[in-house]
Specification:
Helix 1 packs across helix 2 and helix 13 packs antiparallel against helix 14. The relative contact order is 0.10. The protein has two domains: 66 residues, no CATH class; 246 residues, no CATH class. The chain is 82% helix and 0% strand. It starts with 7 loop residues before the first helix and ends with a helix. The model has no long low-confidence stretch (mean pLDDT 79). The longest helix is centred in the middle third of the chain and has 59 residues. The chain is mostly helical.
Length: 348
């Protein structure tokens, strides 16, 4: 079993390729062999996984069993394909999984970019401030001492304020960078709820988390429904996919309403899981028998909302960090230039 996993894009490509070949009448073992022969490299994760899957399928295993044995696919994909094999909707499930993981890839890239750019700006600010303190300010101080023998009290005051301002900004930026690193570490650990509770108190971050959680939920729900599961079972199976505890709590309330006899659309509308317009759209889709189609549209809309909110967050953080950099360097340079201006005026 491989310890490495396929990324979201790799899972999406595999599911789409398998779905198209199965739809064209190719058997599972032949489809795996065709995929294996189309990859010339021998050391890749997918190639190693396909080789193991080919052996398992030749021994009589199903697609989901072979995928699980390979160890390169996420548990959710294996569960969904197993449900598709049992219900006879394997091709539909594979296409749904392809869209789901492609959407996950898009959202993950946006979030990665949203974190990477501020991190690079923080590093740039820290480096600039360190250079100011280690080289620029001492150089100005030496020049003034050589010119006048020693700095006057007023001139020294200007330079002292420049030092204080740079040190203060540097300490703040280092603390922010440390908090960002700690947040990333905690987010990828079992203590993710600590970061969630902090981010949930920031309105824009809370909106991003909520939209992402609902995006994952609707994507998983549409896939489960396509596999032939009942609504209540599909909802319960989709809740863990949100990867966000506050969203899970809202969905659990919705599940309780369904246990009382309400449909998923009615329960979602009553619990205000979505904006009113989307809630009514879900109700209309359920009554017309187009629930899966509406869920797919809703998933796409939530993905767009996530992207817009992330872009908005970056649009706020970018000017803020740039402003801090310009303000810090600008005020520091002005502080060390004022004594020079004073000496030039006295000479003139």
């Amino acid at each position: 079993m491989s310890k490495r996993k396929l990324d979201n894009l790799g899972v999406s490509a595999f599911c789409e390729s398998m779905a198209m070949m199965l739809r064209s009448g190719i058997q599972t073992d032949e489809a795996i062999e065709l995929l294996l022969s189309s990859h010339t490299s021998s050391g890749g994760v997918l190639e190693q996984g396909l080789a193991g899957m080919k052996e398992k399928i030749e021994q009589g295993s199903g697609l989901s069993g072979a995928m699980e044995e390979s160890g390169i696919f996420p548990k959710y994909a294996i569960q969904m394909i197993s449900a598709g094999e049992a219900s006879g909707h394997l091709e539909d499930i594979l296409f749904s999984l392809s869209r789901y993981y492609a959407d996950q890839k898009t959202i993950s890239e946006k979030l990665r970019n949203a974190v990477t750019y501020p991190a690079v700006m923080l590093i740039l600010i820290i480096v600039v401030l360190a250079v100011m303190l280690a080289m620029v300010l001492p150089a100005f101080t030496d020049v003034y001492n050589n010119l006048t023998g020693s700095l006057t009290a007023s001139s020294y005051g200007y330079v002292r304020w420049a030092y204080i301002f740079c040190w203060f900004a540097l300490v703040i930026m280092i603390l922010v960078a440390a908090a960002l690193i700690a947040g990333i570490v905690l987010w990828n650990s079992s203590r993710r709820n600590i970061v969630e509770s902090i981010l949930w108190k920031i309105p824009l971050c809370a909106s991003i988390l909520e939209n992402m959680g609902m995006f994952r939920f609707t994507g998983a729900l549409s896939t489960f429904l396509a596999s032939g599961e009942m609504q209540d079972e599909a909802v319960l199976s989709s809740i863990p996919m949100t990867d966000c505890r506050p969203v899970e709590e809202k969905l659990k309330k919705c599940a309780l309403r369904m246990e009382e006899g309400h449909s998923i659309a009615q329960a979602a509308y009553d619990e205000e899981l979505f904006e009113p317009v989307y809630g009514r759209m879900l109700l209309a889709g359920e009554r017309s028998g187009n629930m899966e189609s509406v869920l797919n549209k809703l998933t796409g809309q939530l993905e767009e909302n996530c992207g817009s909110l992330v872009d908005r967050l970056v649009g706020i953080v970018d000017p803020l960090l740039s402003g801090i950099l310009v303000l810090t360097v600008g005020l520091s340079l002005i502080s060390v230039m004022l004594p020079l201006i004073g000496m030039m005026n006295s000479v003139g």
